[in-house]
Write a structure and sequence with these properties.
globular, 26% strand, 322 residues, 4-stranded mixed beta sheet, single chain, 13 strands, alpha+beta, Phosphoribosyl-aminoimidazole Synthetase, Chain A, domain 2, 60s Ribosomal Protein L30, Chain: A
Length: 322
């Protein structure tokens, strides 16, 4: 099967079943033609997932596709953007029609769930890797950024932390739990939830935002660097899921929450003047978020457990390090 037949069978035909907001010309030409309203800005992010690095080599193709799009959409959530379109560059060791059928099914299921349209891409031969570029819209001047935190701002995170690292351990058979918890953690790894709705709730309230891909300590460090401040994290306040607590090892659970990575939750800072509004969103059930620290003067991220320094062996995932 040639490249163009592969695209036609597994991607172009499937994409034709989905709506394409703002797409003037999509798959099938040299480039896509896309349109945005005048009051909108384009948010663009790109990530590559490599077999054996970002997902197990023997992972189910549908799971791989779901994970690939979801983790990319998390970057749009961190900017307060709404997903519109994406492109796909797929490197394949061989043309496996069953694998492609499953991958396509997972990809378009996720695309439909989050309202985004495939508008182009490329295929080539080589070790399995998946590169997705996602594009979204945000009202001009209202994008969430990393560089706006202030001294005294509260640090919050959405939902639970540590599930991504525990999920990877379960996928790699390094962790064994009862079926409900095991299923939950595997789902959290392969189908992380980009916090797009939460981002819309906090867009007018947060001073700085980032998604947690490499671990809270590492990613909060990016907010610190961009805002020229330091952070104090209160380890005892980290939100941990019932599945993670089922491990019976609170120290390991906390370390995964701080530096395990793969959570794709939002970390955001909020000035005291906006905390009442955030509290109201939480009380109404419109936002699930937990205060885990404060922004302070200085440099870097300090983790404290009951007021004492909580040392980490590593702060998070580092690219190009073994």
């Amino acid at each position: 099967m040639g490249e163009f037949e592969l695209i036609r069978r597994f991607f172009r035909q499937a994409q034709a079943e989905h709506s394409a907001t703002g797409v003037l010309l999509g798959i099938g030409d040299d480039a896509a033609l896309l349109d945005l309203p005048a009051d909108q800005q384009l948010a663009v992010s790109v990530d590559t997932l490599v077999s054996g690095v970002h997902f197990p080599a023997k992972a189910n193709a549908e799971d791989v596709a779901q994970r690939a799009l979801r983790v990319n959409l998390s970057d749009l959530a961190a900017m307060g953007a709404e997903p519109l379109w994406f492109t796909l560059a797929l490197t394949l060791p061989e043309v496996d029609e069953d694998w492609l059928r499953d991958f396509s099914r997972g990809l378009f299921a996720a695309a439909q769930q989050y309202g985004c349209t495939l508008v182009g891409g490329d295929t080539t031969t080589g070790p399995l890797s998946i590169t997705l570029q996602v594009m979204g819209s945000v009202v001009r001047g209202q994008a969430l950024r990393r560089d706006g935190a202030g001294v005294g701002d509260y640090i919050l995170v959405t939902h639970y932390l540590g599930d991504g690292a525990a999920g990877l351990a379960a996928v790699e058979d390094r962790l064994s739990l009862a079926p409900p918890h095991d299923d939950y953690l595997r789902q959290r790894f392969y189908r992380p939830e980009p916090r797009l709705a939460e981002a819309q709730h906090i867009r007018a309230l947060a001073s700085a935002t980032i998604d947690i891909s490499d671990g809270l300590a590492a990613d909060l460090g990016h907010i610190c660097a961009a805002s020229d401040l330091a952070a104090q994290v209160y380890v005892e306040d980290l939100p941990l899921s019932p599945a993670l607590l089922e491990l019976g090892d609170i120290d390991q659970a906390r370390r995964w929450a701080l530096s395990g990575g793969d959570d794709y939750e939002l970390c955001f800072t909020v000035p005291e003047s906006h905390m009442a509004e955030v509290g109201l969103l939480i009380a109404r059930g419109e936002l699930r978020a937990t205060v885990v620290g404060h922004m302070v003067t200085g440099v870097g991220v300090q983790c404290l457990l009951q007021g004492e320094t909580f040392e980490l062996d590593q702060t998070g995932y580092h690219h190009f390090q073994s």
